[in-house]
Specification:
Layout: H1 5-8, E1 13-17, H2 28-34, H3 42-50, E2 57-67, E3 83-92, E4 97-104, E5 114-125, E6 132-143, E7 148-160, E8 173-180, E9 204-216, E10 233-234, E11 260-270, H4 275-289, E12 306-317, E13 327-330, E14 332-335, E15 338-342, E16 349-353, E17 362-366, E18 371-375, E19 382-394, E20 408-420, E21 434-437, E22 481-488, H5 497-516, E23 550-551, H6 571-576, H7 584-588, H8 604-608, H9 641-648, E24 664-666, H10 676-680, E25 686-698, E26 711-716, E27 724-725, E28 729-732, H11 735-740, E29 747-751, E30 765-771, H12 781-790, E31 792-799, E32 805-812, E33 823-838, E34 842-843, E35 859-877, H13 881-888, E36 896-897, E37 903-904, H14 913-919, H15 921-929, H16 934-945, H17 954-975, H18 985-1017, E38 1019-1026, E39 1032-1039, E40 1046-1052, E41 1057-1059, H19 1063-1073, E42 1084-1085, E43 1094-1097, E44 1102-1109, E45 1132-1134, E46 1146-1153, E47 1159-1169, E48 1176-1183, E49 1188-1193, E50 1212-1215, E51 1221-1224, E52 1234-1239, E53 1247-1255, E54 1265-1282, E55 1287-1294, E56 1300-1306, E57 1312-1315, E58 1320-1322, E59 1327-1334, E60 1340-1350, E61 1355-1368, ...
Parallel strand pairs: 24-33, 30-45, 34-61, 36-39, 38-47, 48-54, 54-61, 62-69
Antiparallel strand pairs: 1-7, 2-5, 2-9, 3-4, 3-6, 5-10, 6-7, 8-9, 11-17, 11-18, 11-22, 12-13, 12-19, 12-23, 14-17, 15-16, 19-20, 21-22, 25-29, 25-30, 25-35, 26-27, 26-28, 26-31, 28-29, 31-32, 33-35, 37-38, 39-44, 40-43, 40-46, 41-44, 42-43, 46-47, 49-52, 50-53, 51-52, 53-54, 55-59, 56-58, ...
Helix pairs in contact: 17-18
Length: 1467
């Protein structure tokens, strides 16, 4: 075929479908499929090793812009919509081979014959050869009617990266390259092979060139283990294992995620239909494939291929490459009854045999040891498993397999592989067996090898999710599976990514050198690129295998053949390309990285300093945020019809509208449509929002009685009203109804007054909030409707007697939207949730007698403590017409302050009484000192305010003032007990001197008054309605009144008010407030040490000064813990509108001073505080005087003000208390974020309250959520005890000033008692010793609470946090009993107990399951050495199952003598 120059450089036309592919992948599969690479040729890799280029180097390429005068146009239609893209690919000039992956830039439009890209890409490579090039192509994308794009190449260029010189880059620094006509495909033309200079063959596009910068990038060294070689990436690409950067370029200064150590144990692999049949079929297929293995002879000679070893590769992969070299372990055939088990004493994984196993033949493959892996909390990190078999076959002359040959060759074959992402889904895989389906066949895999597949296994190549233990799955019976356990483990030895990377690079260097430079005298070579494992290299397989090998033979059975073998080049590898026995480049492209530096040229940091310490993971233990979805009544928690009938028979007041009609009932479980226009067009603009607390349903819980709680009270905060604390609410029970009902009926609530009498005549508690135009600020109605639509109201439920928190719940407020109706109502049944922290149970052994070697990890559980029945309603009401007209006439709230339109500060001259009094403040003070002297005071006031006296002679005026001063002195002398005589010339002279001093002071005060009036004339007043955390934006119009230019300095006397000097921030607030004023770039001049920013004004020029007020501090005073007693006239309380001042009301003065230091204008902002909306409330309990460290998981956030859909959300947090440290860390997109708190401790029983403001926008304009956090500090008491046995502890209670009547309460009264149990008097400054008796029935680590309450004032006096470490007792005997199911009758049994003492003793019988087991006698007395028969009565059960019941034989002091274990099987 003849090639011409015109045919060579044709335009490349391609069709590209428009797809919105996010850069943030959802998981490992997306990252892996998106980043498949083309490896370099083996000749190039070998040439790099020969030139000693074994260490990879990182580079940075900055693409600035393309300048073009005339780009060849191929499309005439829609040229104005054409966008341009730059594509970059690595190219091997010597072998005419493209490698790696094509990088594509973002699409840009041409502007003024320039296409700005301004993008940075990174790569690292060890192919530092002159033949390694970068090909950059300019492509135009034109839209087509079907939604696709037509891509045309508009030119390309070639960048030579390296030279033959050892100093490195050929193009270092700022460079410019000309664009050529044609397509990069022309570089594959045979005429260009071995061509060093392409300029003679390529035609330059006139006036088109590319500006770029290329240089080395040393920070890329630390993340080379996360990226394979020869791949071009940008800083915003999804690279799992790398933390996201706030700047968007994560590779500029890369930071690694914290790697956490994990232990993988109890690993087994099941192959279908069985291990024996699977391996037999495998050997048959391999033997049939290798037809030359069959030689004539006896049957013994047909034993050709045997299984030498069964190996498993385990590594961590991030979709790009393996983070570390995969570990290689040897698997052993195991019987089906042999499973992995963890020894609790040694904490090591061992394999034990199940006694129930009957089959002795191997049924699965197992691992006897455990593996240590390093993982990071990222959804795209996966653990990759690869099952590999090592086969051994005899080898003869001319590579013909001979059964009689004494030498054998080993080769490898991959059979199955699988991946599992631990952090892709929030699955609870801890302490559970993980089961994964293995894959096979021709599918892309991380190792890049061929995988064995048969017709039987072709159905099992689709991945399957993890199956929880105990769940039957029929599909798993025909699939090859791997099961294992994964648990976090403490890091034994500190390691760093750099150290592990250097280890990997050394291994790669050795492999590359050994594979590319073989010894001439070497007779046998190992397959290059084979992954090496500890003690499992191919060279070590030459020795006799320790494990049984499997052969394929017509006469011999498997498991009976064992051949000592030596390693030789496998003919099967070259003939069939099995598994890892492939070319060097292909086997190493997926997971092997190059060395960072040359030998002997290591960094001094790595030589002199040790490895950096690795930070251990900080696991948040706080409960999740309560959302509305948790409280939607489900079928199991909703009340039955009988419960609802009992509830509404109590006679609760109806919610009616203004006409007396019953409000329309809405269903909170159904989705409710919302129309904003309908709400705004409602004629009834007033709203009375009603909350009716109807009933509370008790749920039986461990440690408390059936009648707990007896009374409750609730706390909540609605919108920005003050927090509400209700009075005591009595739980009324109907004994007759309870007896008839088969379920727990709700207890009706009744308010309790100060006399402790329940108002049973009017059940329930009703709280109302009126929201109308008199309450809402201008333009606040939309915020209030948004609050009802999207927010939930947090409610805390407390025990009225003990003041202990029962639980919390949240109610959705969307049902309170009327949508044009006169009144609406909805009934809610909310689950009251609490968080219980407990650890795993521990056996009482001899090792527990000493100090504990490690602390147990606590597990947070969410428990349902009850159900709260609430009815919500909204009653529409009309607004006063007079007030409505006044509101309509209110001017629109403007963010622009114009001095002429603002309220002036000047109030007239000296003829006004207000200014006269302000100027004579000194005389007014003297008048106050003469308030008891009637005549002289009247005379003084007449002198001060009578106009007639102003024209008198100066001498008379002076005389009157002297007389007045004398009267003052005389009055002072009488008050001090001294008789002062105001006579004589000396006294008159002294008075005259004082008079002249006062006169000079008056002159000064007059000058100050005149200056003050002038300042008031140029002062503009503006009112700011500010709330916590919300930024208020205003613009002040500053005008230069002079005919000369001025440089004005801005002085602000409050740090919470600032000038916006950032142009981007200024533009953001303008868009947020819809302020139609221009934005000026670089308007302010900032100098270090200057009192404020400076701005230049031309003569008579007016400019807008942007100001922002934002306060994060507030008042944290709170009421004492306990219920309040509101008036109960009609059992209905109207919430007061006295809004609490959360932030401080204050004036802030902004002074604009000219160059001479005189004020040119003054802006006074009067801050009026308004309460804020609390989105979530948290209550934390912590030991006193200890620093609280807590992490709270953030819900998914999105910035609604962000313009781009793919923009990352900037999450920041602020605290209202400056003494509390709070922060959040920037993670990769899609990962959950936590707020970390560090709160200083306080003495018990103080409660520290503060607010957290969560911002999801960059400039922190409005907090997306405000959290109110209460930290209860308690006195900590550690108790170590055994289940069923009473332990005693002393508590100290100190009295305060008043005399108190105190009673102690426990959160678990069935397990904890306090002596004295009743009410006792606590005198002032007294010390009362309390006896704490703890008798737990459940093993493990737990937390209990004890409160000392003033029963008269209902206030908390003291609080204790009991930290229990409960062990299981030592069992004396074990029994087993069977109880029939469904018969309705229990079962009776007997146990004989013998008194081990010689004297008579009295014993008590206790059980940890009193609902399942009852005793004939709970107490018995027996003589010494005699026997007693204990009668047991087991309760019947309706469902099959089993339970273990502990029976305790205690003495009179509740000390355990014997413990029996009874296993009850219900069948």
């Amino acid at each position: 075929m003849e090639y011409t120059k015109e045919k060579l450089f044709v335009l490349e036309e391609d069709m590209v479908k428009t797809e919105d592919i996010s850069r943030v992948a959802d998981g490992w599969n997306e990252v892996f499929e998106r980043n498949r690479l083309v490896p370099p040729s083996s000749q190039t890799a070998r040439l790099a090793v020969e030139n000693h280029f074994t260490q990879s180097q990182g580079f940075q390429l900055t693409l600035n812009r393309i300048t073009t005068a005339s780009i060849p146009q191929g499309i005439s239609v829609g040229e104005q919509d054409v966008i341009y893209q730059l594509r970059v690919t690595l190219f091997d000039r010597k072998n005419q081979h493209f490698l790696g992956k094509t990088w594509k830039s973002s699409s840009q439009k041409i502007k003024n014959s320039k296409i700005p890209f301004n993008q940075v890409l990174y790569f690292h490579t060890s192919l530092l050869l002159p033949s390694t090039l970068l090909v950059l192509e300019l492509v135009s994308l034109s839209p087509k009617p079907d939604g696709s794009h037509q891509a045309l190449g508009r030119g390309f260029t070639v960048l030579e990266l390296f030279t033959n010189r050892p100093e490195g880059l050929a193009a270092d620094g700022d460079r410019r390259l000309n664009l050529y006509h044609g397509s990069p495909r022309g570089l594959l033309h045979p005429l260009l092979k071995d061509t060093v200079d392409y300029s003679s063959f390529l035609k330059v596009i006139d006036g088109a060139h590319l500006d770029f910068v290329v240089k080395k990038h040393l920070p890329l060294l630390s993340v080379m283990h996360l990226l394979p070689e020869n791949v071009l990436v940008s800083g915003d690409d999804n690279i799992p294992g790398l933390t996201a950067s706030p700047t968007g370029d994560a590779l500029l200064r890369p930071q690694l995620l914290n790697m956490m150590p994990f232990t993988l144990s109890r690993l087994t692999i099941s192959l279908q239909p069985s291990l024996e049949k699977f391996e037999s079929l495998l050997l048959q297929l391999i033997s049939a494939d290798c037809h030359n293995t069959k030689q004539p002879g006896s049957e013994d000679t047909q034993r050709t291929v045997v299984i030498q070893e069964r190996r498993l590769h385990v590594g961590v992969h991030n979709g790009w490459c393996f983070l570390e070299k995969p570990q290689v372990v040897v698997l052993e055939p195991l019987a089906s009854g042999v499973r992995g088990r963890v020894n609790s004493a040694s904490k090591k994984s061992t394999l034990v045999k199940d006694s129930s196993a009957t089959s002795s033949l191997p049924q699965m493959l197992g691992l006897r040891s455990s593996l240590e892996l390093k993982l990071a909390n990222h959804q795209a990190l996966a653990i990759v498993f690869q099952l590999e078999y090592v086969f051994s076959a005899p080898i003869g002359r001319e590579t013909v397999l001979s059964a009689t040959s004494t030498s054998r060759a080993a080769f490898l074959q991959c059979l199955r592989w699988g991946i599992w992402c631990p952090f892709q889904e929030p699955a609870d895989w801890k302490s559970k067996e993980i089961q994964l389906v293995l894959q096979g066949g021709a599918k892309p895999n991380p190792h890049g090898v061929m995988v064995y597949s048969t017709e039987v296994s072709a159905k099992t190549q689709s991945p399957a999710p993890i199956s929880a233990p105990g769940i039957a799955q029929e599909d798993l019976e025909v699939k090859d599976t791997i099961t294992f356990w994964l648990a976090s483990s403490p890091e034994r030895k500190a390691s760093s990514p750099k150290a592990s990377l250097m280890t990997k690079q050394e291994d790669v260097s050795r492999q590359r050198k050994s594979s590319s430079s073989p010894s001439r005298g070497q007779k046998h070579m190992t397959p290059p690129g084979s992954p090496q494992g500890p003690g499992l290299s191919l060279s070590q397989l030459a020795a006799t295998s320790r494990y049984p090998t499997t052969s394929h033979s017509s006469s011999a059975l498997p498991w009976q053949q064992s051949f000592p073998s030596l390693l030789h080049p496998s003919p099967l590898a070259s003939a069939h390309q099995l598994s890892h026995v492939t070319s060097f480049a292909v086997s190493n492209i997926a997971h092997l990285e190059m060395d960072l530096q040359r030998d002997g040229d290591e960094l001094p940091l790595m030589q002199d300093e040790g490895d950096p310490l690795r930070e251990l993971p900080f696991t948040p233990v706080h409960a999740p945020v309560i959302t509305v979805g948790m409280n939607v009544p489900s079928s199991c928690s909703a009340s039955s019809r009988s419960s609802l009938a009992h509830l509404f028979s109590a006679g609760f007041p109806e919610i009616v509208d203004s006409n007396g009609l019953v409000a329309e009932v809405l269903d909170p479980t159904e989705p409710l449509p919302f129309d904003l226009q309908r709400e705004e067009a409602d004629l009834l603009q007033g709203n009375v929002l009603v909350f009716q607390f109807l009933a509370f349903t008790r749920i039986p819980a461990a440690g408390v009685g059936p009648d707990w709680p007896e009374n409750i009270y609730v706390t909540f905060q609605f919108y920005r009203f003050p927090p509400v604390t209700s009075q005591h609410l009595k739980l009324l029970t109907n004994d007759k109804a309870q007896y008839r009902a088969s379920e727990t009926l709700p207890c009706v609530l009744a308010a309790i007054n100060k006399d402790r009498i329940a108002n049973t005549g009017s059940p329930g508690l009703q709280v109302q909030f009126r929201v109308d135009d008199s309450f809402l600020r201008p333009e606040e109605k939309g915020c209030f409707l948004d609050y009802l639509t999207n927010h939930t109201m947090h409610i805390d439920i407390w025990d009225g007697d003990s003041l202990l928190l029962i639980g919390s719940t949240a109610i959705g407020l969307k049902c309170m939207l009327r949508q044009g109706k006169s009144a609406v109502q909805a009934l809610h049944e909310l689950e009251v949730l609490t968080t219980d922290y407990a650890a795993e149970e521990a056996l009482l052994t001899s090792s527990d007698l000493g100090p504990r070697s490690a602390c147990c990890s606590l597990t947070a559980r969410t428990l349902v403590r009850g159900r709260l029945h609430i009815r919500t309603g909204n009653i529409g009401c009309s607004v006063d017409p007079c007030w409505k007209r006044a509101v309509d006439k209110m001017p629109f709230y403007s963010h622009i302050i114009t001095p002429c339109e603002a309220n002036s500060g000047f109030r007239g001259g000296s003829l006004f009484t207000r200014n006269t009094l302000q100027l004579n403040t000194r005389n007014s003070a003297q008048v106050c000192r003469l308030d008891t002297d009637g005549d002289q005071m009247l005379l003084f006031r007449a002198d001060a305010i009578t106009p007639k006296e102003c024209n008198l002679h100066e001498t008379d005026s002076v005389r009157r003032k002297l007389d007045c001063m004398a009267a003052v002195r005389q009055r002072e002398a009488r008050e001090g007990g001294k008789a002062a005589k105001v006579t004589g010339h000396a006294t008159e002279a002294q008075l005259a001197r004082e008079f002249h001093q006062d006169k000079s002071g008056e002159d000064r005060s007059k000058a100050e008054g005149i200056a003050n009036m002038l300042k008031q004339h140029i002062t503009a007043h503006h009112c700011l309605y500010a709330s916590l955390g919300t930024a208020k934006y205003v613009e002040f119009v500053l005008k230069n009144p002079l005919n000369v230019p001025q440089t004005v300095t801005i002085y602000i006397d409050d740090p919470e008010l600032s000038v916006i000097t950032n142009t981007e921030e200024w533009r953001y607030f303008k868009a947020l407030t819809r302020t139609p004023t221009p934005v000026e770039e670089n308007m302010f001049h900032m100098e270090e040490g200057a009192p404020g920013p400076r701005v230049y004004l031309r003569p008579k020029e007016s400019i807008h000064i942007p100001l922002k007020y934002q306060s994060f501090l507030c008042d944290h005073t709170m009421a004492l813990q306990g219920p309040s007693y509101l008036p109960t006239g009609r059992a209905s309380q109207m919430a007061k509108k006295n809004l609490s001042s959360i932030i401080t009301a204050k004036p802030i003065k902004v002074t604009f001073k000219a160059e001479d230091g005189k004020p040119m204008a003054i802006c006074q902002l009067n801050v009026e505080p308004t309460p804020h909306v609390v989105n979530q409330a948290f209550r934390l309990y912590h030991p006193e005087l200890c620093i609280l460290k807590k992490a709270i998981r953030l819900p998914p956030c999105h910035d609604p003000t962000a313009g781009k859909t793919d923009s990352r959300t900037h999450i920041s947090v602020r605290c209202s208390d400056p003494n509390i440290i709070c922060q959040t860390r920037m993670l990769v997109p899609g990962e959950p974020q936590d707020v970390y708190l560090k709160v200083p401790g306080s003495p018990s029983p103080q409660i520290k309250m503060f607010f957290l403001m969560i911002f999801t926008n960059k400039w922190m304009a409005v907090p997306s959520q405000i959290w109110q956090i209460y930290v209860h500090f308690l006195e900590r008491v550690d108790v170590s005890c055994v289940t069923g046995q009473r332990s005693c502890q002393s508590l100290i209670l100190r009295g305060r000033q008043p005399v108190r009547k105190v009673k102690c309460f426990s959160s678990h009264p069935e397990e904890t008692e306090v002596d004295p149990a009743g009410v006792f008097v606590l005198p002032p400054a007294a010390v009362q010793e309390l006896q704490l008796k703890v008798q737990p029935w459940r093993a493990g680590s737990r937390f209990l609470y004890v409160n000392a309450v003033d029963v008269e004032q209902q206030q908390l006096v003291a609080a204790w946090l009991l930290c229990l470490n409960v062990h299981r007792p030592v069992l004396s005997k074990a029994f087993e009993v069977c109880v029939p199911v469904g018969s309705g009758r229990g079962s009776s049994r007997k146990i004989t107990y013998t008194n081990p003492y010689t004297s008579s003793r009295t014993f008590l019988l206790r059980s940890d399951h009193p609902d399942l087991l009852q005793f004939k006698e709970d107490k018995f007395q027996i003589d010494g050495g005699e026997s007693y028969t204990i009668g047991l009565r087991f309760a019947p059960s309706q469902t099959p199952g089993s339970a273990e019941i502990l029976v305790y034989v205690n003495d009179l002091e509740e000390k355990t003598e014997e413990t029996f274990c009874v296993k009850v099987n219900y069948s």
